[in-house]
Hints:
Elements: E1 6-10, H1 22-33, E2 39-48, E3 53-55, H2 71-74, H3 84-96, E4 102-104, H4 111-120, E5 128-133, H5 139-149, E6 157-163, H6 185-198, H7 201-205, H8 207-210, H9 214-217, H10 225-233, E7 238-243, E8 247-248, E9 252-253, E10 256-261
Parallel strand pairs: 1-6, 2-5, 2-6, 3-4
Antiparallel strand pairs: 1-10, 7-10, 8-9
Domain Extradiol ring-cleavage dioxygenase class III enzyme subunit B: 26-236
EC number: 1.13.-.-
InterPro entries: Extradiol_dOase_DODA, Xdiol_dOase_suB
Amino acid sequence: MRALPSLYISHGSPMTALQPGPVRERLAALAAELPRPRAIVVATAHWLTPGPCIGSAERPDTVHDFFGFPPALYEIRYPASGAPALAQRVFDLLAQAGLAPTIAPDQGLDHGVWVPLRLLYPEADIPVVPLSIQHARDPAHHLAVGRALAPLRDEGVLVIGSGSITHNLGDLRMGYGPGREAPYVQPFVAWIEQRLDAGDVDTLLDYRRQAPFAQRAHPTDEHLLPLFVALGAAGARTHAHRIDAGVDHGILAMDIYRFEGHGAN
């Protein structure tokens, strides 16, 4: 089996599960192109811990970590099994890299995990291991987390970072929507794509200072940090392919990235 790519998926709001828009078609097409993984590790923006933490539940719950949405959303279940042995493998790789991981035996699948996975693998027949994000740590830390996990790609494991290329929910009250997009979205999206195309990792790591409208696009970092996990998991030499899935609510760019590693990690 050839090495799998790693993915970054913008999961949008929880309503993506009921109203997926273009992302449904994009993820279905992506799943059809990929070799079928034996398991999936998802670094999710909705599980925040001081250090890397790995979910090892055999049957992880579907977690509805939001409120005020239609009842139908709370009825959705994503009954994928867990993978305790893989969770231990992730722990060992992160420990070998000096990243001081821990294991959470009862961690479920938050909507940053199950919303995109329902569109990517709707049968829920591939085991899933959730991985936390460290909101108090910088992009370089998350790149290191991803690089530690790079060997998994040769073991049939799909590594996914789940977040959002732009994420400023405070702007929901600004009247943006279809036909009226926040002015910072496209400049920020284009900058990320250009830096990834150029392989300019050092500048990406400094996005807070160098990207246009970085503070508007991400008042906090947690939804972009999974991008660095996915980028790191592809290895030291990486080709990034952007998949445009539109903009939700005029503020949430739904970009997907497929990272292909080349050569040694």
